[in-house]
Amino acid sequence: MVQEKIRFQPFSSEPIRLIDEQGHWNAPFEHGLPPEQLQRFYRDMLAARLLDEKLVILIRTGKTSFIAPHAGHEAAQVGIAHALQRGHDWLFPYYRDMGLVLAMGVPLVEIFGQTLGNAADPAKGRQMPSHPGSKSLNIFTVCSAIASHVPPAAGAAISMKLRRTQQVAVCTFGDGATSEGDWHAGVNFAAVQGAPAVFVCENNRYAISVNISKQTASENIAVKAQAYGIPGYYVDGLDVLASYFVMQEAIERARLGHGASLVELVVNRFGAHSSADDDSRYRSREELAAERQHDPLPRYQRFLEKQGLWDAQWANELRLEISKELEAALQAAQEAGEPDPLQMFDDVYAARPWHLEEQRRLVMDELQS
Amino acid sequence: MPTMTLIQAINTALDEEMSRDERVMLLGEDVGKRGGVFLATEGLQQKYGPDRVIDSPLSEAAIVGAAVGLAAHGMRPVAEIQFADYVFPGIDQLFSQAAKLRYRSGGQFTAPMVVRMPTGGGVKGGHHHSQSPEAHFAHTAGLKVVVVSTPYDAKGLLKAAIRNDDPVVFMEPKRLYRAIKEEVPSDDYLIPIGKAAVRREGRDISLVSYGGPMVETLRAAEEMAAAGVEPEVIDLRTVMPWDKETVLNSVAKTGRLLMISEAPRTASLASEVAATVSEELFDQLLAPPLRVTGFDTPYPLAQDKLYMPTVTRILNAAKRLLDY
Fold first, then answer.
1. Does residue B157 sit in the same domain as residue B301?
2. CA-based end-to-end distance of chain A
3. CATH number, domain at B315?
4. Does B23 share its domain with B170?
5. Which of A138, A208, B315, B316 is the most buried (most CB within 10 A)?
């Protein structure tokens, strides 16, 4: 079987962009997407932005302990989410992917449960906020250790190839991750095995404070793919349709047995690295203000307007609807309460060995005294 | 009943498990065409094909990390690390991913996988072909750690490890690979993980060891028996979780514990067992628990045999306990 459509060339010198800043469709092919889907992209981007704003409020009001803001990544994340076959393909996300997992269909209650670290979290409040996961959606629970999920993504892709499941493993990470040894190990193994993996860099040019210019001497991230013998796509990640169509091509390429690829989605990071970071120490406010002029939402809004698919009233209603959903989910998550403290000793192993039984009893006695 | 060396028993266990369950697969450096540098996987790629016996790139991070993803996706991977000394580039995968996947996902995802590795000294391997790093693994919640000492156990424990639902680090003392031959039944038997074996019954002193130094421990026990002492010898077999019940029952009977291990002394399994026995049996002890261990130096080449617990050192420590 051969791939139906090859639209994009790897290793382009300029980022692949389909919608320009003014919102013009600027591609040699028709997008062919129905209006509902085009509007759905907007809704998911707006939901991601409003979720980010809500998380900022939760940290400022002391209701959560940590967030990793994703504002500026929405177009890339929504593009990725829609290119996957949700619930069939596997996603190996990183900690700045709350907008992505939301667009993948992780219920908001679970997202807030994870943010609050309480009983509404399917992972039982075990990890810091911004570390979601979902077995039912094949979203591999986020691990803080940078790039440590890249070799597991390669392994899952090898399993998919071995068992001919027609699935694809999509693995996302930031630009800093590409300097880790495990990143190289994972990409190399998937590439040499011809495994159906798509490695996706959400390149916001900052690893906490370290600018991409100190991270790599490569001209961009996509060119690194050349060393592994796989295609590398350099994409404007502020353009939701460019992100979507390139991801779709990379995913279908993998699904059809043509192996792994690397996609670089160049995005902006509008917030600090995390709630524990003060980005004014290393990034001028002028630079940030200039970046904010390149916001993925208004650009896509202009595109939709030109198609007659956006007006202020619709957008306001949408905003209201999403805000209500966020509020209701937050409320429900807050009501879930604290997880059982003795769950601390569960899930270390399939069954508790004697030493964990002893340690559990110690805590149980302390709690009862 | 066939007689086998330890390495043959490993090969047999892998073969039987791969033929029983098509999810079982192997990956590692040189495990395919070459059959592994110690020949643990000899003939298996020919039999099961290159997709189920993968010659991996030279990267322990890739081997261990891919095993995590393979396992999470439903396979039962057995990864080979060529020498325990080379597991360290794969440690982030073992500690951050494999060990914690079940916990961090609240039980949603698991990594049922085995990481096999030749361990220990005695083969003139110098720093980086001789170490016994089991304490690092035992100190990391979420991993089970097995150290075998006989061909019979190697087969039953490896099969149990492959069927276990948790990540298991499976350590094979390389100096025993071809040192011992014994009868290994051809039937499908399992040895439970977490269960020690009493190798010799006695009432005067408990000698507790595992892995490579089981040889010297049993030799010392024979010499002690010839001199009229009745030592009890326990092979832990699993060091995480170790079999506290069997050890405590023995020391409660003998009142004396001698721990023998070739791993470095400080923060070792030997220390852990000794501390637990002191805490739980303090009033029944006739002497303080003692440890005979490797030393807190990098593993030396020239003093290869001297580094490991010698029969003399075991006998001297036993005498201190008996004379206390």
1. no
2. 68
3. 3.40.50.920
4. yes
5. A138
- Residues 6 or more apart whose CB falls under 8 angstroms from that of A19 comprise A25, A26, A239, A240, A241, A242, A299, A300, A303
Q: Is the confidence at residue A211, as pLDDT, over 70? A: yes
**Can B129 be counted among the known catalytic residues?**
yes
pLDDT number for residue A6: 87
Q: Please work out, in degrees rounded to the nearest 5, the angle formed at the alpha carbon of residue A101 by the alpha carbons of A99 and A102.
A: 60
The pLDDT, as a whole number, for residue A54 is 97
- Band the pLDDT of A291: cuts 50, 70, 90: very high
* Nearest residue in chain B measured CA to CA from A352: B241
C-beta of residue B77 within 8 angstroms of C-beta of residue B67:
yes
Residue pair B247/B196 in contact (Cβ under 8 Å)? The answer is: yes
Q: Which two tokens stand for residue A146?
A: 């940078």
Q: Considering only residues 308 to 337 of chain A, which have any Cβ-Cβ distance to chain B shorter than 8 Å?
A: none
Pairwise CB contact (< 8 Å): A145 & B54: no
- Chain position carrying tokens 């509007």: A39
Name which of A174, A141, A170 is nearest A79 in CA terms.
Answer: A170
What's residue A4's pLDDT?
60
Residues B48-91: tens digit of each pLDDT? 999 999 999 999 999 999 999 999 999 999 999 999 999 999 99
First to last CA, chain B: 46
Interface predicted TM-score (ipTM)? 0.96
Nearest CA-CA distance, residue A238 and chain B, Å: 30
Region for residue A338 given its phi and psi (left: phi exceeds 0; alpha: psi -120 to 50; beta: otherwise): beta
Same domain, B150 and B9: yes
Of A14, A88, A83, the C-alpha closest to A44 is A83
Same domain, B252 and B284: yes
DSSP-derived secondary structure letter, B94:
I
Q: Which of residues 180 through 239 in chain B touch A, CB cutoff 8 A?
A: 194
In this structure, the answer to whether residues B203 and B285 fall within a common structural domain is yes
Residue finishing a domain among B120, B151, B183: B183
Alpha helix ranges (H) inside chain B: 6-20, 44-48, 60-72, 91-92, 101-104, 134-138, 151-163, 214-226, 244-254, 269-281, 304-307, 311-323
pLDDT over threshold 60, residue A9: yes
pLDDT for A2 equals: 42
Tell which residue, A343, A339, A340, A345, has the closest CA to residue A358.
A345
- Which of residues 61 through 90 in chain A touch B, CB cutoff 8 A? 90
- Note the residue count of chain B: 324
Tens-digit pLDDT profile for residues A297-322: 999 999 999 999 999 999 999 999 99
Which one of A128, A142, A159 would you mutate to disrupt binding with B, by most B Cβ within 10 Å of its Cβ?
A159
Structure tokens that stand for B233 in this block? 């010898």
Could you report the per-residue pLDDT of B143-165, keeping only the tens digit for each?
999 999 999 999 999 999 999 99
**Is residue B314 in a domain?**
yes
Domains of chain A, earliest start first? 35-338 (3.40.50.970), 340-369 (no CATH)
Instruction: Quote the CA–CA distance of B30 and B6 in Å, as a whole number.
Output: 19
Q: Residue B94: its chain A contacts at CB < 8 A? A: none
Catalytic residue among A31, A43, A282, A319: A282
Residues A354, B245: C-beta atoms closer than 8 Å: yes
Q: Where in the sequence is the domain holding B133, given as residue range(s)?
A: 3-183
In a shared domain, residues B106 and B31:
yes
Examine the fold and report which residue of B148, B183, B218 is the final residue of a domain before the chain moves on: B183
B119 pLDDT more than 70: yes
Contact B89, A181 (CB under 8 A): yes
